[in-house]
Amino acid sequence: MKVYISADMEGVTGLVDAEDVQPPGRDYERGRVMMTEDVNAAVRGAYAAGAAAVLVNDAHGPMRNLLPDLLDPRAVLIKGRPKPLGMIEGLTSEYDAALCVGFHSRAGVLGVLSHSFMGHEIEDIWLDDRVTGEIGMLHAAAGALGVPVAALTGDDAACAEMTGWDPAVATVPVKYAKDRFAAQLVPVAEARAAIEQTVRSSLRSLRAAGSERESAPAADQEVGPGAAGLPATRRLTVRWQSASVASHLIAVPGVERTDDRTVTVSGDMVTLYRLFNLFLRVATAVTSNPPYC
């Protein structure tokens, strides 16, 4: 079993503020340790479930947050940016499961450090007219590759968001949002134990379900996880805070502007995810606003 981990930071145990998750924040270096240890808990759970390989993608901000010397040595790490697929860099159909560690809720939701990819630069994202954020985008892209998301860790708002996309995904709330920069924290040891146990049990269940499908008669087998019912062509719509971003993006073939601040484009989900990462690079070049303002 090959397991993929996308590691974000806002949903990590104990972290509640931009000072915790963005350099040069006064608590950022401590936040890096906390992030690495949450990932380690997931790695331990994956190997306890029988994983043969675990790939970890540092998916937060500068994408150089995880500390390699503290990371479980059984895991392989992708670090740094730019990456063509950003938060899902390295994920392919060869993986049996994906894990989301340290995730947060989308823009506009009252969750800890809630936003969608770029702080306040992105007002809203829709996937086939359904409002989404980082969780929905990752779930859809993984599904298009035929890779089921097995578990997610984050605050209670992030967990609820994932459940809305897929009730089969196991979730681990490591904190409970009181406001956007405040939370009631689960004790660190308890949170890490819950991450490890939940990852282990969710991957074991997924593996058992896969074995049952393989042993079933061909006529009775279902389409693989994440593939059933997914349309081949999806539509992505993004509403920016800046009209300047939208005006630049219409130079990309296939991108249309529906109003001064909103662009839309259609295609297969993996191509859309790659194209969206190009959108982010254009927006970063056009704007200079810091996140969480």
TrEMBL record:
Keyword terms of this UniProt record: Aminopeptidase, Hydrolase, Metal-binding, Protease, Zinc
Pfam families: Peptidase_M55
Binding, Zn(2+) 1: 8, 10
Transmembrane stretches, start-end: none
Binding-site positions, Zn(2+) 2: 8, 60, 104, 134
Chain intervals for the UniProt region annotation (Disordered): 206-228
Keyword hit for Transport: no
Domain of life: Bacteria
Name of the protein in its database record: Peptidase M55 D-aminopeptidase
